[in-house]
Amino acid sequence: GDFAQEVDTLVVGSGPGGYVAAIRAAQLGQKVTIVEKGSLGGVCLNVGCIPSKALIQAGHRAHLAKSSEDIGIRAENVAIDFEKVQEWKGSVVKKLTGGVEGLLKGNKVEIIRGEAYFSGEDTVKIMDEKSSSTYKFKHCIIATGSSPIEIPNFKYTDRVINSTGALALNEVPKKLVVIGGGYIGIELTGAYSNLGSEVVVLEGTKQILPGFEKQMAKLVERKLKKNGVTFHTEAMAKGVEETDNGVKVTAEIKGEEKVIEADYVLVTVGRKPNTEEIGLEGIGVEMDDRGYIKVDKQGRTSVKNIFAIGDIVPGPALAHKASYEAKVAAEAISGEPSEVDYLAIPAVCFSEPELATVGYNEAQAKEAGYDVKVAKFPFAANGRALSLNDADGFMKLVTRKEDGLVIGGQIAGPNASDMIAEIGLAIEAGMTAEDIALTIHAHPTLGEITMEAAEVALGTPIHTL
Ligand code: FAD
């Protein structure tokens, strides 16, 4: 219609950025409307974090079933019913997206289905198949997320797939080529390798998982190789030819041209912010040259009543970063002095072993000018890790030398994803290694590794020399 409908706080996109912003804004008394063009929950719940972790778990179970002879468990004829795996994965996604819808409604957030396009500094057009309506907002939080980058000569098809395609396959590929050894590529490599695929990884640089210390990445590489995965570093994918039931990928590997045949090729070379087709240029929202929206510490863009959060602003493209920025932006709109502080944002790769990092690693701390003490403790010296039959890995606790202040931590090992939270808490709370060492950790648990690493920092570990 011609008349603009008036709303107070408008949230565009319902991923872990948007839906969290909407709920927090509603909790603070704002009248909130959220618009979503796809599925509630965004990439994370529908085609990202959650379904990938479900597939990884299915692969992990299959792998354990097939490989526990060393502890006296022998399973014969382990079969994978992939249709059932996919069905289960879908049910997990459905529970969570349904949960988000319930939470939004419970917080009296109005949900509009459609695609938003900015037509002014305080107006959007929202279009669905049938109609287009204009909404006038007081404040807006943009959380439109990101999409997989497509590289030249690799147009996405049924066989040339991105992460979304890889999560939706209806068969376990006999052979899979993965282009890009970032965390998404490596997580999916692990999942499909465990489910029985022969996987070949092509990585352009010298090291997979560039966000993690080399020693950590090497641990993952070793484990995957043992599982039959082939790695080619300094490998440039050149092109792909589709055959009747597969692909032929051409790549230049350390200067030599090779052709690799497979059932599918998965391209995971990064993601780009969804900021191109939503009318932002027209209303003067400033972006950098890569299309990320420029924001201040509250998430405010160059248009002062418009905020931006999540994958469309600079920083790591992670769900918990999006949710964190979401709360800050919602609070800023309510006039609170909240600001982002990125130091304690963890990053996790759900590989085997899991990798996790928070705060500074040793090199980053030194670069930031700290005199550091790095305390290391191996999983192999922990009773719980040994009785899990999963003792490959280590923890590094990064502390400030003068007073033991915890400024970072890195973990490679089972449950690193959960364990990293304690180090994040220590950083947030300004704790020292002594505070962690004095905290009684239950025995036998992997948590004791954190306590022992803190004791290493103090020079008084019990279970290592
Ligand atoms: P998104 O989740 O991308 O949501 C944006 C939403 O906005 C979408 O629903 C979209 O439909 C909607 N939208 C876009 N444009 C419009 C418009 N014009 N109008 C209306 N709606 C619109 N992160 C982690 O932290 N941990 C993980 O383990 C993890 N695993 C991942 C695995 C995979 C395979 C992938 C692809 C990503 C993974 N991520 C993970 C990253 C995580 O999914 C993202 O960082 C997160 O989803 C970003 O949240 P967001 O709210 O910014 O955007």
Question: What does the model show?
Answer:
One of its GO terms (molecular function) is dihydrolipoyl dehydrogenase (NADH) activity. Its cofactor is FAD. Residues 8-326 form the FAD/NAD(P)-binding domain. With 465 residues, the chain is of the alpha/beta class. The chain is 31% helix and 26% strand. It contains 13 helices and 22 strands. It has helices at 18-27, 42-47, 49-66, 82-106, 163-167, 183-195, 214-226, 319-333, 362-367, 383-387, 416-428, 433-437, 447-458; strands spanning 5-12, 32-36, 110-113, 115-120, 123-127, 132-142, 146-148, 160-161, 175-179, 198-202, 230-232, 235-243, 246-253, 256-262, 264-267, 271-273, 306-308, 347-349, 355-359, 372-378, 394-400, 406-412. Strands 1, 2, 3, 4, 5, 6 and 17 form a seven-stranded mixed beta sheet that branches. It starts with a strand and ends in a 7-residue tail after the last helix. It binds flavin-adenine dinucleotide (FAD). Residues 12-18, 35-38, 42-44, 48-49, 52, 115-116, 143-146, 163, 184, 274, 278, 310-311, 317-320, 322, 350 line the site of flavin-adenine dinucleotide.
